[in-house]
């Protein structure tokens, strides 16, 4: 029986419901999402593994595993697929890494994690695109540096937390910091992971080649062991006897200061106890004393009582003391976060003002607009005024390089102090807001890397912990517990020599970052040529084309 088609009165075949094409597109999109779920789930798992590589967990080999896994997941994918995989990897990583921000608010932690994960999404796209290039493990390692280079600067001055180097501050990779700083450590870790991924690909499938896999594995081992060939000088030209005061705070968290003068009294009393022990012969007199950031909760220049309390404690101990305090800024709307050299005879002298205030913690960008919808920002009553000079100051017999709190995460701030003559590094910090959250452990790890990178002892003074002394080889000589009043006495080397990393400055970072960008450009160009060639031949480009807009 012949098939006939019913026609309308006008003689035309009836139209299909308009919803049919839309339903078809929805079904296809849903099928693609389902097909991509296993890959997305693996990306999430790998992101969590990378988070576990960082303090307080310190499972640093997982940083290699995470890089290798992300390299395999993005291998041969489209740029859009790679971007999604990178985001699925980056978001859980930063949520785990930055969980200490929940003290401020869960929304703050999630918001910052999303912003940082967008950079990893760009990394994922770059990994997918360059995975078609010869020597792609090298470009993978370069792109990790490119991603960190961007995150360290953007937006609002950047946020360097979560660099691969900061998960490897006491590993075989660490000595490489003396040659090329944190970027070279990141490069070596990423190269090791990418080579292991390449080796895995050569163990199965059409690309199977046990010999090539073995060579790639040997390359990964060489990347791990390369640091052992780097000399890390530790001998000092002179020595410095130092006492670090950790006075503790009454209430960890957002309201750590307690009553006015309470934190200041904690540090003054601990210093006076040290003075009494010296007078009784129970302790040797140090050359200098170091107080942490915000050790004085009142401006000594505008509050006579705070001035007298500091001066009394410094006179009692009888040696120059580095005081951390907030002072009034150039106008009534600003305040300055400072380290002040306080002499027992002449009083306050040289000072360093923190150069890199923390957005939304120490100043509010777009205050007039954002304060209308986020009332919590009113807690930052006055914006911090940034300093314009390095923290190089003479403290007693030592020329120190003062770095305040989060500044230890920024390469150039620490490097500039050493290149301008600092013989020992001092990190004044107040982590009382984030006590027992893992954040103090992460900051301690960064200080360990800086010690190796610059060949300097690092003295950490924290209000509530973790305070410590780190040798120039990155080893922790001593450290305090959190939320305890403590005092550290140590003799540390003063060094004048500069490392290769100090001399090269940002050159290794820029070289590796630009190489990653150039590799992306070359891969995109190759993809465009393939598309043009396919069209000229009357066909369509292969499904593995770098620009094929397929979603996961």
Automatic annotation (TrEMBL):
Localisation: Cell membrane
PROSITE patterns: CN_HYDROLASE
Classification via Pfam families: CN_hydrolase, LNT_N
Keyword Ligase tagged: no
Annotated Low complexity bias: 8-23
Residue span, CN hydrolase domain: 240-494
First-tier enzyme category under EC: transferase
CDD domains linked: ALP_N-acyl_transferase
Domain of life according to the entry: Bacteria
UniProt region (Disordered), positions on chain: 1-23
Pathway(s): Protein modification; lipoprotein biosynthesis (N-acyl transfer)
Keywords associated with the record: Acyltransferase, Cell membrane, Membrane, Transferase, Transmembrane, Transmembrane helix
Membrane topology (UniProt): Multi-pass membrane protein
SUPFAM superfamilies given in the database record: Carbon-nitrogen hydrolase
Record keyword Amino-acid biosynthesis present: no
Membrane-crossing segments per the record: 42-70, 82-101, 108-129, 176-200, 212-230, 510-528
Chief location: membrane
Annotated EC: 2.3.1.269
Protein family membership: Belongs to the CN hydrolase family. Apolipoprotein N-acyltransferase subfamily.
Function summary: Catalyzes the phospholipid dependent N-acylation of the N-terminal cysteine of apolipoprotein, the last step in lipoprotein maturation.
UniProt-recorded name of the protein: Apolipoprotein N-acyltransferase
